[in-house]
Amino acid sequence: MYKYLSVASKIFISMQTINLYYISYISVLEIKNIKNNVFPVRVNVSLPSTMIPVGSDLMIPCSVEGNPIPTVTWYKDGQLLLDNERTKATENLLIIFRTNTSDLGSYTCKASNLNSSDETTVNITMETANSSTINMGISASVVKVILWTALVQVIFLLLGFCLIHLLINQIRKEEKLKATIKLNATVIHRTKTI
Predict the structure, then answer these.
(1) Tell me, what DSSP letter sits at residue 81?
(2) Which residues partner with 12 through β-bridges?
(3) Whole-number Å distance between alpha carbons of 107 and 45
């Protein structure tokens, strides 16, 4: 038997075993479903790089959780992806052999069962022989905004370094002045005592 303690903290306790469990991002309905061995569908696509060389093989792993066991379908640019001589889709992996520029785009791993569904999308870009990037999803205006933002960040970083340098120099000057005043005070004190 499970007792829900707090909506904000998402904590419940098993009264049978007196163990405290922390479950993130779940609802009261999901807690009741856990009791009945029903788990919401979760999809995670982990891809080390979304930029691949033309002609290479592309493998997109898709981790799927849920109970009852969900059905997995793959989509490219919103269209159902079917197996062919270059494309093989399984429950946990999409493989595209000998990629070319027609393989650019968004790939979605969607999993669903009777209770819930989830999906994750990854955008694939390609590196050509002359090392330029082919990308269907970024417009020139977005690239300009990204470059200007980077430039502004670099300028602020340089200004920050300049300010730090000025502060360090000011602190050094003040320390030298204090040392000189202290030395002069010591010399004056000694001359008075002689």
Answers:
(1) P
(2) 4, 21
(3) 10
As a whole number of angstroms, the distance between CA 169 and CA 142 comes to 41
Alpha helix segments (H runs only) across the chain: 28-35, 140-193
pLDDT tens over the chain, length 194 residues: 333 333 333 333 333 333 333 333 344 444 555 556 788 999 988 876 778 888 888 899 999 998 888 999 999 999 999 899 999 998 889 999 999 888 989 999 999 999 899 999 999 888 765 544 444 445 556 667 778 888 888 888 888 888 888 889 899 999 888 888 887 777 676 666 65
- Three-state secondary structure along 31-77? HHHHHCCCEEEEEEECCCCCEEECCCCEEEEEEEEEECCCEEEEEEC
pTM exceeds cut of 0.70: no
What is the length of the chain?
A: 194
| Residues 6 or more apart whose Cβ sits within 8 Å of residue 179 | none
Residue 138: helix, strand or coil by DSSP?
coil
**CA angle, 47 then 114 then 7, to 5°:** 80
As given in the structure block, the two tokens for residue 4 are: 């829900």
